[in-house]
């Protein structure tokens, strides 16, 4: 079995395990897996009660990853997230107490309920893969991914994430209400939500090897040009106050590589970019007069895709 086929097999097994405890959201879970492979972070949005926490916990367990949930509240301090220095009378000295951020998957639940100072406590961790406590740097485990949840429609008592912090998230995934048939299945299946039923499908060592393979996926100059043209077009769209950043180019390129890998290819095609672009770009487009999803749809229709004959060269 080739390496690309191995990634596809892991994805298939992961989705099978997730289906034991949560109904639907196969594409969303696939995007989450691709984001993990691409060493990114996820902004998970949706109304309360659609399974955001269950999805995150089951996702971590099936991939053999440690999991930590932090409930963000207005009184949460940065030290409550990353850790602090405390005095230990037994040793008559100060020692570092690591915070809950030291896990492979960190669920920052209702992130917009915490004040900006606490939100900012995640920035170094998300960008550098480390935190600073008492003047010393501590590496976070590998892999490391923040899954931050919020209900974008609930504004009372919240602190909206600033544009710079939104840009740190590789993808934004929105969980809608399930379909009628899916909600019927939810009403019948008494095992849903029981994360203890999920089995591990890969070891953490094997998962890190898959993550390392993403860098080896080929992205040719024509596809790179296409990615840049798509991102730049969001900045020039009429009515857009702020389009996607240069960081969006890097993240879109890396996620497209991961998407190609989990679909058993070692090279990126424009269809990979088209598929993941809404997840990467929507939360990076700011406008008071036009829907970001509409911007992305029009941009993808308007930007010319490279010829198939050039993609694998």
TrEMBL record:
Statement: the UniProt record of this protein carries the keyword Cytoplasm: no
SUPFAM superfamilies tied to this protein: P-loop containing nucleoside triphosphate hydrolases (SSF52540)
Molecular function terms from GO: ATP binding; ATP hydrolysis activity
Coiled-coil portions: none
Transmembrane segments: none
Alphabetical keyword list: ATP-binding, Nucleotide-binding
Protein name in UniProt: ATPase associated with various cellular activities AAA_3
Native source organism of the sequence: Caldivirga maquilingensis (strain ATCC 700844 / DSM 13496 / JCM 10307 / IC-167)
